[in-house]
Amino acid sequence: MFNPNSQQSTLNQVDQKAEQYMGNPQELEQKYKQNQQLIDLLALQKIKSQKEAAAREMALKMAQQTGKPQTIEQQREQQEMTAKANRLTPKGCCYYCEERFPEGDKKLFCDRDCATDYEEEQRLKNRR
Ligand SMILES: [Zn+2]
Prior knowledge:
By secondary structure, the chain is mainly alpha-helical.
């Protein structure tokens, strides 16, 4: 005779525990060390394997993303832009359209549009 309280409910308890301690498996590990409950151990293993699967998926996604040549190119350009932007010092007016800023204003550009246009201009210059 099938006992509904045996295997099925054990699996449910493992699932529940794994879910409960997903964010804090160390606590569950402590609990298992104290009580030596098989369910705790199973839940721990479940959390571990889920975390590993998630990490594998993440690594795979990263590899796929950075594996695209144009993305590397974009990243390199982005870094160059940022490096250049960081070397600029406030000169009291917009680097792109030369609009004057109020005294003491430490801005480099009037707004994001000017910054983007300036970066684009610099990029084109450097290409030549
Ligand atoms: Zn401007």
